[in-house]
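Why this split exists: single-chain examples teach little about how molecules sit against one another. For that reason, every record in the complexes split bundles all components of an assembly together and asks for one structure covering all of them. Below is a record exactly as it appears in the raw files.
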Amino acid sequence: MNITVRQKAAAQRLTVVDCDIHPAFRSPKDLHPFLSERWREHMTTLGEHLRNGLSGQLPFPRMTASGMRVDAFPEQGPPGSDLGLMRRQHLDANGVEVGMLMPLSRAGMEERNLDYAAALASAVNDWQLETWVKPEPRLRAGIVVPQEDAVFAVQEIERRASNPAYVQILISPRSSDPPGHRRYWPIYEAAQRCGRPIGLHVQGYSGGHASTASGWPTYYMQEHYATSSGMQNTLASLVFEGVFERFPELKVVMIEGGFAWAPALCWRMDKHWQRMRKETPHVKRLPSEYVREHVWFTTQPIEEPDDPGHLADIIGWIGWDRLMFSTDYPHWDFDDPQHVFKFSMTEAQKAMLFRDNAKALYGLQ
Amino acid sequence: MKVPFKGSIDCDLHPALPSATVLLPYLDEYWRDQFVSRHIDRYSFVLTSYPPNSPLTARPDWRSPGGVPGGDLDMIRREALDRFGSRFAICNPLHGAIALFNEDMAAALCAAVNDWVARELLDREPRLRASILVPAHSAELAVAEIERLAADRRFVQVLLPAMGDMLLGRRLYWPIYAAAERHGLPIGIHAGSTYRHAPTSSGWPSHRVEDYVAQSTAFESQLLSLLCEGVFQKFPKLKVVLIESGFTWLPTLMWRTGKTWRGVRPEVPWIDRPPAEILRDQVRFTLQPVDAPANAPDMLARTFEHIGSDRVLLFSTDYPHWHFDGDDVLPEGLSDDAIRKLMIDNPLETYPRLRDDALAGERATRTEETVR
């Protein structure tokens, strides 16, 4: 379907809140205006220092066009770097009422030099406002913070919290220690204080731990799956460290990790927590109860059973009020709002999944 | 629910393993001397994954005062074999030998454990079978151990840990699979870690329960690895049994890999049909633990529908690990037919050596009846 036809069709359909859109830099120099001279020079001479053997490229090369939709390349710069194309191709064409920005690149979450990480995070937070949210009010920013420096993270959160353009706090779920560890608690405390959810978007190699408990995979197909396993471990850590007991108002969004695993993980956590209960007395309730109360999931990349009805079972078990539609634009595994759900839904369920759950969570008008 | 009939095949049972002192006679002179002079024989070789006094490691009523759970053959007979009416039960020795870095020492100790199992368990109880413990981090030594024991048909499987040095699909391990396939031995991957890597991609969890919960994600990684590296194409007759893995996570894995594979097929061109089909054909799961919601048999029944095959589950008690109470080894939500399959037909289909024994047993019975 061409863009114009899509736009006309979109105008007559339910609007959507897209909970995962990736903005990109036309070039790294886009960040220069938001960096001090010291860090501009650092960026030019040394650049990012990651826990990963290849710089500026992916050790698991993607299967198409650097992992992008092949139709998402603007005339200049990489996909996601041109607001005009993003509007025409995605925001207008798919009836996106609100879109959540997920700046992953050079946002400091994976940087080993924590001073540089702080400079990058702060710059990316400015850049989101100036380059995206101000010219395009449908977009919302996230406060990106390097989770390994909780002191800076809290300062940065507090500095931005009065601005409603920032709707959530973004940290890497792939931290140096599992995300439930108490070294990260000041971040959760700040999130709770300013009433923002913590967004955990799957990440590359943040803490340097292998993608699996038996080391590194060989193929991208495995690495793609490992994000789903990693998100399960992340959620288990938050539960078993007692984060939700400690921060009863905290809300967490699991972004791009899939969601169909959530019921089975909850069953497993409940069963073995009951058996091992004395080890974690700070966990007062069934793990599944914390998940039901505190956790939201974005839908992309949606799991696809042969029988689409099976996925409806899963959503019913998680709770229709806990899933939020996302596309991952402009990445290759983009989920199209017109085709993503292959089972029938009531109008009320559609409204929740595509729009209202996100509006309620993020406090959007 | 209770097992409704006799003749089940228990695909995961854990006899207590002896101290290293007891294993000394099973070591050659060099290793005996090494063990004694270095005091290695004074250590227990308990895997970190299974602390002996942890609630998960043994059911309270399967702990005898002062004794070790599963440490006495009469106890195993009374509490596992007789109680669940098992025709065969496969012993999976969870021994710390596999966590040693010294490959030669690990191989010697694995061999000692295997020989001890043969003498002290298999020779004394005809219902027992065993997996071969191998030092997976040396494919060469692992293959040698498989070859050494293959003629003893009471060894029915090769045992590898779910979390190890490298993902099990890697070509380095393929000689193990070639040997296993050649001898009609499935590869059994059992929960547990040698802790060569953090159990999660965000590092080391604080609690035991987190490590245990993370086992299912380690199994996911192993299945992806075996699948993506083409092990199932290279060894089409090989069966892989995931032991103490849980299985309710399987539908999500099949759905996600099926979708991703359609997008990335050129990367793994040897995968020539949907991953779910390959997994249903060549991968099996032991029953316990049943990670299902309490008091919701309808949800478990739906999960079985999601799995889409009644051939993949193999009955197991996981004795003496604590996953269920009383005789309640079977979950609600299974049809009579599915119960019969998982208790008898599926294990026989999975383990060629058990199938041969079962057929021989039936022939013997028929002959006896004819003579009578």
